[in-house]
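Page 47, continued from p. 46.
Same chain as before, 200 aa.
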Amino acid sequence: MDAGATIDAVRDQTETERDRLGSDKVLIAATDATLETGAVLTAAATRESGLADILDRWAAEADSDVAAQFEAAAEAATERADRIDADAGDSDGFLDNLETVSGTARRVGAGLVAAPLVADRFYLQVVSFFVNEADEQRADTFREIRREASALDDGKTVLEYLSESERGTAATAATDAIGAAYDDYAETLEAMGLDPKPIC
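Result:
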């Protein structure tokens, strides 16, 4: 599998989880059912600040080529957090999972493939929230943040540095990280008495 096929495999294996992570319940879970502007901004800032910190640490521990991509991704996440302009809250299940990931290939999969795929679904609902609030300025800001946060360029670049077996390891780690994000989402909703599965 080349880099593109690796990412496609992760998409295919996590389609159900990602679909549910893009539902309108994701902000209920992320904000403890406090669907207010401040809580939504805090949830977004938590994700970007937490991701930036983790990627920055990984950059310090990685070989030069991979370190440069981790560092670039960390700087981008920091810049997005600055634009959100809110205090970060407690870490969520996805970030907690990233904290446990070791090994370059696994970190590439979790931090540079899974994180953008999860961000795409999360920010879809953040944009919708601000559209519904008639806050077009913030909706536009988060459209741009979504576009940037969901970009897979860094992941594709680094996957090309890896061997085929390492790309397989990265794909497994990405799938596991998305699974952790979904499990946290589902458990949070179930604790509120809500069903994480869509109503058909």
